[in-house]
Amino acid sequence: MLSESRRDTPVPATTSPIPGVIQQRPTFDDETIDTAMRHSAPRRPGRPRHIPGPDTSDHPRDQILAVAARLFVDRGYAGTSTRDIAELVGIRQASLYYHFAGKPEILAELLEMTVRPTLDKVAELDQIERPEAALYLLALHDATSLARLMHNIGKLPGCPDVAQTPEAQQYASARGQLRETYGSLAVSCGSQAVTDTIHLHQLGNLILSNVESVIARRDDGDNVAAKELHAIAASILRLCGVPQAQIEVAAKVAIAAPGQHPQAQ
Asked: Do the beta carbons of residue 143 and residue 259 sit within 8 Å?
């Protein structure tokens, strides 16, 4: 199933990665942010707002990212100010600038979260002997990552007010790297009938579209179960013309792979 996705921005020629790699996602849950919204009565300018809940030990930078993610998705990037973010986090607006230079830098980091974990996974594929197993594992990891991103931020690159920003253009470069990796793996394991008729670039885009169907599913309010994540990975191998017996072996290799998230098992 094709969908509006995190990566619909045209890919520039350069394939340099986005600066500022994020190694760990913040965990600032919806309940805490909703509670903050309900208790955010007007106060004197400059006064910090308190967000009740168990997550006060989170680093302020992570809290800023979590609140910004929620607001960018709900109100839009253009419709959210740094003051809005600071008030819901419970800090002064000036304090936000200690952690981020401004709203564009926050956006850049959120966009990075949607693609960087999968790009980092590419380095581990050398341990997988069969290209169809490597493709299955990468697609499964990508879909799983999108399925558990906070506030479904995978949809941000497809938002009109985000798509035209310089940050989205930088992000497109990283998306291009992922597309090329998908395409190369598809050519390596695909049937001759497929590889003779579909170019590597097209295969990469088709695979991305299948993986990103997770975003639309989440946008409809549905949780994406492990079985569905595996079904996406399997459908990608079928798209490449891989026989069912090899798909089943690839699935077993992916499940046994070190570091695989429990949601995908």
From this structure: no
Contact of 12 with 162, CB cutoff 8 Å: no
> What type of residue sits at position 14?
T
pLDDT tens digits, residue range 9-51? 444 444 444 444 444 444 445 554 454 444 444 443 333 333 3
CA 121 from centre of chain: 13
Distance CA 236, CA 251 (A): 12
Say which residue, 168 or 7, is predicted with more confidence. 168
Q: Which amino acid is at 35?
A: T
Retrieve residue 90's tokens.
């419970």
Residue 20 CA to residue 113 CA, distance in Å, equals 10
Query: Rounded to the nearest 10 degrees, what angle do helices 166-189 and 226-239 cross at?
Result: 70
Determine whether 262 is exposed, middle or buried from the number of CB atoms within 10 Å of its CB (0-12, 13-18, 19+).
Answer: exposed
Q: What is the pLDDT of residue 1?
A: 43
Cα→Cα distances 195→183, 185, 200, Å: 10, 11, 8
Token pair recorded at residue 66: 């979590």
Q: How many CB atoms lie within 10 A of CB 193?
A: 9
Question: Which residue in the block uniquely carries the two structure tokens 């479904």?
Answer: 152
SS3 annotation, 116-172 = HHHHHHHHHHHHCCCHHHHHHHHHHHHHHHHHCCHHHHHHHHHCHHHHCCHHHHHHH
- Tell me how far apart the alpha carbons of residues 64 and 58 are, in angstroms, rounded to a whole number: 10
Is residue 251 within 8 Å of residue 234, measured between CB atoms?
yes
Q: Which tokens belong to 181?
A: 């990796």
CA nearest to 169, candidates 54, 48, 7 = 7
Q: Which residue has the tokens 């490449």?
A: 240
